[in-house]
Amino acid sequence: MSTSAHSLIKDFKSLVAEGRLGHAYLFWGESPSAMARVGREIVALLECGKTVCTSPYIDSRELCPDDAGKISVDSVRDAINFLWQKPLRAPRKTLFVNGADALTAEAQHALLKTAEEPPEHGLMLMSALDPRALVAPLVSRFQKIYVGGAEDEELSDTEKKAAQFAKKFIAGTAAERKVIIADVLEAEELPRAEQLLAHFVRHLLLECHKDPVKHVRLMGRLTERWAKMQDFNTNRKLQLETLLDA
To answer: Which of the listed residues 114, 148, 182 is the one where a domain comes to its end?
Structure first.
């Protein structure tokens, strides 16, 4: 299923009104801002009956990557406990994992248990640049929806630098890519450059999605190696250098 953010929100209004809302949806695509908009407006729709909610949310929770670029198993377990509570105002208790690519392996498996047997009043939403960054059993429990739309968020200086590195990497030779990897890892240690590596991986995936057939090998290897870097104390330089000839 593929559609624009605007059309998706319209469709979800109908699903809510007709009582046909499912229990789990995974939004994926090139635009984190578009996916975040869809998820948040669905949450607002359930909380307030409209896509803009000014009152405090009491029946929904959003998980985002922490300062280290990860979503931990502890935060997922806490959110799952919240999801199992009965809603106080909305028809559903909703969990939105915004940036599910950042879920650690342990967090994904914790989420899988609830996705397999969700609470009747629960709704699980996730967004990810590439579903292949998640374990297959978890992805299989979600209805996958591609969200179209151009990237329209304002980039920070760190993200701009990461995007520049990604563009050079995608067009570079193996030797040029090796230099870029060294530059990324070196720049990440500079002040105010936190999460540069995470942003670099994200923008590299965005570049790959512009020509997925050409870059299918790079996308697969990138998501695999990024998962290893997320969950193990591994040598990031060596992991990234497996991308040189992809």
So the answer is: 148
Residue 205 lies in domain: 157-241
pLDDT of residue 31: 82
Residue 199 tokens read as 């942003």
Chain centroid offset of residue 241 CA:
24
**Rounded CA gap, 122 and 60, in Å?**
10
Q: 3-class SS at 4?
A: strand
Strand segments, DSSP code E, in 85-212 are 93-98, 122-128, 143-148
State how far the Cα of 217 lies from the Cα of 156, in Å rounded to an integer: 29
- Asked if 39 and 158 touch (Cβ cutoff 8 Å), the reply is no
pTM, two decimal places? 0.65
93/171 same-domain check = no
Per-residue DSSP letters for 68-90?
A: TS-B-HHHHHHHHHHHTSPPSSS
Residue with tokens 């915004």: 98
pLDDT at 43: 92
pLDDT tens string 60-92: 999 999 888 899 999 999 999 999 999 998 999
